[in-house]
Amino acid sequence: MTDTSRRGFLFAGSIAGAGLLAAACTSNTEEGGGTGGQNVSTGGDNDKPGKQVTIGFSAPAADHGWIAAIAKNAEAQAKQYSDVKLQAVQPTNDINQQISAVESLIAAKVNALVILPNDGEQLNQVARKAMDAGIPVVNLDRVFPDKLSYRTWIGGDNYGMGVAAGHYIGGRLKEKGVSNPVIVEIQGIATLPLTQERSKGFADALRTYGFRVTAQQDAKFTVESGNQVAGNLLQAHKKIDAIWNHDDDQGVGVLAAIKQAGRNEFFMVGGAGSANAMREIKAGGVLEATVTYSPTMASSAIKIARLIAQGKGMADLVEKQVPQSITLASETITRQNVDQYLPLGFES
């Protein structure tokens, strides 16, 4: 990855999650019975110091803006708590090295684990090993296929990302009166379930407008591949009406290829919500929108791991335990609302 894809990251991890799940976590002792036998949550403040806990953290190497922001968010959130020690292992893109790193955290008997696996299927067994050892695992983003391998999963809505992009593109093309449009889709890593979910959501949403994807190719989440793939697609299609690029990091390369080709007859939608993509949207040009997949989920994962390790529940829920899964919303960022989202962006 070149330096163009790894510029500095926004203030300590996008303001430590901006309280996605934060603002009001409450201890179980503050939940009470309501009238008529109904249970209610009366609020509280689980951010106050509690039992000291050590949270292990493992993620891929930070050679990608979104992944780097994940690590920054986790670190920044952990620093907010005097009762949390974050034990982060060396990030790596090597599956075996990540397995070994997680095993070292299990041997250290941490109180909870937050794991963003390089590949959920290949890390599934070691996550199950942690759970079997009594260490609750918060599975971040790329899901383990075995639900017994994690206590709670938190991540973005990949299908929802595709749906949001599809509706934006479908709606804009209908507004413009375009029939039989040429729609190009640039994926991330095609073999990942998250990519397949994004593509399915995109196709399903386009279908409601009577449209379909004309050409689809994966760019592996890198600037270089984004540039190469976009260049090839631009050469193959002399006229394009819309492009959906799954990932704003690889979008740096995609936009560079578009600029180099001197093409502007189409509009483009990005994915994830990087700060540089938002600045492009604000400036005007082919990039009209991006759909969110915020790395602030790492901040929330640390908060969740802390609550689980301390035996606490969540604020605005009546239930006494943290939920088994939490899916974040995918939101569409355009010139109309970009200023609201820019402070939460990460640098690609």
Automatic annotation (TrEMBL):
Domain Periplasmic binding protein, first and last residues per copy: 55-312
Supply the alphabetized keyword list. Signal
Q: Name the domain of life this protein comes from.
A: Bacteria
Task: Say if the entry is tagged with keyword Signal.
Answer: yes
Q: Does the keyword Signal apply?
A: yes
Kindly name one Pfam family recorded for this protein.
Answer: Peripla_BP_4
Recorded family membership: Belongs to the bacterial solute-binding protein 2 family.
For this entry, the protein name equals Ribose transport system substrate-binding protein
Q: Upper lineage ranks?
A: Bacteria, Bacillati, Actinomycetota, Actinomycetes, Streptosporangiales
